[in-house]
């Protein structure tokens, strides 16, 4: 197809396909039938699928109102809508699964169910706390958060309170409660919602699925409305989302899915790559296109990412089938600096070292907004906040105060909206200059203030709005006016699609998914943090490796990886660098498994494979930790176990972390039954690694001593 526009402008191929590589172009021109795009990090997947949609609409294959593009975050959906508008197809819907389902539910509820749609519950915490009180269970903020996550997992896995228990035997002890108690809380939570006439986000999907399954007229209407579907980040689809997608399709195959199994990092929420990996089996006539040309990162960064995945150890038969052939990226950028590996004496020294390196990058001209510090847990951020503040370096904490909630941003939007009534649409001033003039009264200047603190933060927020105005004016053309800009800000505010702020980003590895920076610092890469200590089976460890892979592939040019040998200054240097760095960091040796020479040496003795009471085989990680099957009664004293649980609850509360991060119930059970009398004996128990021994060892022994005297 070489369609010319009636006015003689360039052909569709030139306008929509001209800047695509061969594989991206194949994606963009495969407009019908099932299509699976396996897209590695930095390979331009969003570019490929948005150009596919634009090409399909402009060539008449797609009706824009009858195509639905689905992704997993409001920010990603907003980014996709922005790109589609830039390509002239802004009337195509791009939504999250929840937003698309809620829109349908609001429309069909009156005819399918009757009455008014119940109110949507924003947060589960209060309802779960009420459910626990009804059951007379003692909870704190951390345990409520864990219970909320567990209930969300159950619902997206399409489990009910009635069948949760039989399907959750490997889930450990969410919130420190046994699974029977969790099932009771789950049921009580559903009862509280019914009493209050509210539904949660998972209910939106569940009810929509129910209506589509039970009401043929509604299903037919939806399928008439939407003829073509595009699903981004398909490796993160849950069983519930997959079921909804199948009902939308209704047996048709006009589906394009995009994903990368090597970036599956949300298994704990119910996400599974099996649908992506099994797409060809479900649709034998599907076209499969691999995007492996990495345009984001230098060859040095790409090599490290490829080597990390290549050195993974077996995760068992299921994992082997799923992850045996990860996409191998091919770098397209010019060479850059080698990744840096740095060992520090303690966490404080590591944070100071990172701040010093960031100062050097800033002095060399790297913008602060193009630098990120990424860590495994949010609790690690404090040291880096202090180090950057001490160095006079501005930062933004991703997951902290939302951009559009800041007072100066809200004030700026109000002034911009008011100005639309006073400024003529024929005003010759460029949009960027107009916005500069309007926000000047709020403290914006063309040069950044030399001081830090609140003044600098306000300026950075306003500067981000000005930069966004410049960017949109460039992309949308001279007809994009002030009123259009205000509407764009309103939509971005709803989607929390914030513009770039001039400050070093601090974020968890999970929060960094989908983002990229010129310079990335991966910190805290020691055993116990990467992989995290509660990743106690091969599948969980494999997910931790993928999480590190996501972190590495966020970097365009500069990449630094660091760890510390002790937690506090003067502490015992018993931390080891992450096993994932074996063979990657200088002077380290890859595991024998990675070199193909048989199994790697174990880091610690394996837990017993059979029950020490009845001799039966142990089926779960929790059973292996205590060395006893779930059918055999525990041998600990109740007062000892309760004392350990109370201690754990206090520690978790003070650190603002889930209780299982301190110790899982299985590990507490093992401690209570073994009653170790020394650090050496405590270290022999499964679930007590070097970092936890250093952090909690003395306190645990004190609890055991005190409980024995009660």
Word description of this protein:
The protein is globular, with a radius of gyration of 27 Å. The chain is built from 29 helices and 16 strands. The protein has 710 residues and is of the alpha/beta class. The model is unreliable at 1-9, 314-323 and 592-608 (pLDDT under 50). The strands form 4 sheets. It has a 6-stranded parallel β-sheet, sandwiched between helices. The protein has a 6-stranded parallel β-sheet with strand order 11-16-15-12-14-13, with helices on both faces. Strands 4-5 form a two-stranded parallel sheet.
Largest sheet: 6 strands, parallel
Describe the strand arrangement of the main beta sheet, using strand numbers. 3-2-6-7-1-8
- Structural class of the secondary structure composition? alpha/beta
| Count of distinct strands | 16
Query: What's the gyration radius in Å?
Result: 27 Å
* Mean pLDDT over all positions: 84
Helices and strands in order, then pairings?
Elements (H helix, E strand, L loop, with lengths): L11 H6 L4 H8 L5 E5 L5 H14 L8 E5 L2 H13 L6 E4 H16 L6 E2 L4 H10 L6 H16 L7 H4 L11 H18 L1 E2 L1 H14 L1 H10 L2 E4 L7 H11 L5 E5 L14 H4 L1 H4 L4 E5 L1 E2 L4 H12 L5 H8 L6 E2 L8 E5 L2 H17 L7 E5 L5 H10 L4 E3 L9 H16 L8 H9 L13 H24 L5 H14 L8 E5 L8 E6 L15 H15 L2 E10 L56 H6 L11 H18 L3 H4 L2 H10 L4 H5 L6 H19 L2
Parallel strand pairs: 1-7, 1-8, 2-3, 2-6, 4-5, 6-7, 9-10, 11-16, 12-14, 12-15, 13-14, 15-16
Helix pairs in contact: 2-3, 5-10, 6-9, 10-12, 15-23, 17-18, 19-22, 20-21, 25-27, 25-29
């Amino acid at each position: 197809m070489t369609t010319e526009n009636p006015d003689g402008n360039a052909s569709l191929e030139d306008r929509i396909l001209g800047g695509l590589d061969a594989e991206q172009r194949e994606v963009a021109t495969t407009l019908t039938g099932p299509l699976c795009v396996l897209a590695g990090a930095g390979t331009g997947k969003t570019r490929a699928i948005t150009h596919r949609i634009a090409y399909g609409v402009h060539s008449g294959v797609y009706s824009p109102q009858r195509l639905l593009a689905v992704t997993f975050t409001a920010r990603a959906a907003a980014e996709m809508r922005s790109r589609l508008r830039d390509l002239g197809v802004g009337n195509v819907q791009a939504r999250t699964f929840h937003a698309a389902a809620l829109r349908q539910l609001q429309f069909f509820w009156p005819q399918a169910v009757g009455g008014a749609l119940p109110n949507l519950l924003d947060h589960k915490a209060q309802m779960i706390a009420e459910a626990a009180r009804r059951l007379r269970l003692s909870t704190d903020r951390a345990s409520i958060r864990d219970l909320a996550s567990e209930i969300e997992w159950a619902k997206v896995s399409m489990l009910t309170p009635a069948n949760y228990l039989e399907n959750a035997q490997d889930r450990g002890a969410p919130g420190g409660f046994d699974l029977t108690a969790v099932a009771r809380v789950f049921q009580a939570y559903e009862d509280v919602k019914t009493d209050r006439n509210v539904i949660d986000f998972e209910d939106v999907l569940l009810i929509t699925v129910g209506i589509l399954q039970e009401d043929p007229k509604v299903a037919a209407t939806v399928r008439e409305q939407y003829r073509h579907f595009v699903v981004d980040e398909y490796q993160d689809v849950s069983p519930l989302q997959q079921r909804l997608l199948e009902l939308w399709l209704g047996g048709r195959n006009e589906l394009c899915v995009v994903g990368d199994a090597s970036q599956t990092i949300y298994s704990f929420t119910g996400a599974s790559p099996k649908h992506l990996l099994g797409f060809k089996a479900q649709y034998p006539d599907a076209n499969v296109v691999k995007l492996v040309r990495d345009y984001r990162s230098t060859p040095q960064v790409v090599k490290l990412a490829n080597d990390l995945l290549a050195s993974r150890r077996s995760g068992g038969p299921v994992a082997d089938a799923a992850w045996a052939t990860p996409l191998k990226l091919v770098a397209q950028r010019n060479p850059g600096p080698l990744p840096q590996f740095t060992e520090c004496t303690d966490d404080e020294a590591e944070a100071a070292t990172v701040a010093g390196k960031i100062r050097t990058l800033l002095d060399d001209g790297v913008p602060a907004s193009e630098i990120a510090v990424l860590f495994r847990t949010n609790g690690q951020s404090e040291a880096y906040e202090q180090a950057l503040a001490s160095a006079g370096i501005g930062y933004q904490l991703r997951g902290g105060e939302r951009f559009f909630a800041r007072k100066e941003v809200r004030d700026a939007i109000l002034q911009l909206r008011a100005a639309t009534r006073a400024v003529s649409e024929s005003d010759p001033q460029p949009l960027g200059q107009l916005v500069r003039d309007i926000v000047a009264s709020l403290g914006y200047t063309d040069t950044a203030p030399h001081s830090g603190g609140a003044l600098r933060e306000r300026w950075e927020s306003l500067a981000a709005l000005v930069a966004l105005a410049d960017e949109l004016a460039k992309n949308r053309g001279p007809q994009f006016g002030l009123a259009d800009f205000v509407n764009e800000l309103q939509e971005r505010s709803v989607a929390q699609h914030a513009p770039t702020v001039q400050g070093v980003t601090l974020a968890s590895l999970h929060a960094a998914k989908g983002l990229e920076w010129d310079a990335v610092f991966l910190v805290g890469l020691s055993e116990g943090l990467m992989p995290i200590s509660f990743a106690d089976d091969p599948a969980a460890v494999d997910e931790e490796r993928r999480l590190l892979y996501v972190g590495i592939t966020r970097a365009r040019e500069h990449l630094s990886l660091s760890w510390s040998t002790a937690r506090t200054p003067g502490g015992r240097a018993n931390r080891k660098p992450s096993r994932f760095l074996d063979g990657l960091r200088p002077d380290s040796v890859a595991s024998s498994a990675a070199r193909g020479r048989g199994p790697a040496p174990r880091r610690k003795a394996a837990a017993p494979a059979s029950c020490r009471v009845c001799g039966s085989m142990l089926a779960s990680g929790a059973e292996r930790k205590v060395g006893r099957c779930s059918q055999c009664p525990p041998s600990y004293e109740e007062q000892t176990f309760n004392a350990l649980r109370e201690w754990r609850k206090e520690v978790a509360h003070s650190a603002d972390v889930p209780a299982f991060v301190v110790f899982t119930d299985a590990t507490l059970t093992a401690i209570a039954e073994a009653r170790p009398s020394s650090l050496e004996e405590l270290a022999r128990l499964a679930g007590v690694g070097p970092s936890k021994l250093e952090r909690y060892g003395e306190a645990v022994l004190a609890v055991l001593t005190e409980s024995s005297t009660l």
